[in-house]
Amino acid sequence: MNKRELAKVYVKMSPKNISIVQAVKEIEEFLETLKESIALDNEVGFPKRGVFEILTRQPRVVANPVTRERMTVYPKKTVKFRASKKIK
Predict the structure, then answer these.
(1) Residue 18: how many CA atoms within 13 Å on its side-chain side?
(2) Residue 1, CB half-sphere, CA atoms under 13 Å: how many?
(3) What is the pLDDT of residues 1-43, one digit of tens each?
(4) DSSP 3-state assignment of 40?
(5) DSSP state of 51
(6) Among the four residues 11, 55, 57, 75, which has the most C-beta atoms within 10 Å?
(7) Left, alpha or beta for 42 (phi > 0: left; psi -120 to 50: alpha)?
(8) What gap in Å lies between CA 52 and CA 43, rounded to an integer?
(9) d(Cα 45, Cα 64) in Å, to the nearest integer?
(10) Distance between CA atoms of 82 and 88, rounded to whole angstroms?
(11) What is the pTM of this model?
């Protein structure tokens, strides 16, 4: 599902009569707020829904399959959503 499809669902479920453009703007504002709060606290929880958290992937050494040259994949941070037991 992309942002446009999510906006269409949001318009259908919204009690107010809003346009798809307005819905996309509201979704983008929410996502920006979520990004900022994850960056500050490393974790954002929604009761009875789940938790967004930052995971740090460890560095590792991999080999290029064609040349067999060894390369280092540097550590990076990723965001993971862990659903609550009620959603599962």
Answers:
(1) 18
(2) 6
(3) 899 999 999 999 988 889 999 999 999 999 999 999 999 999 9
(4) helix
(5) E
(6) 11
(7) left
(8) 6
(9) 39
(10) 10
(11) 0.71
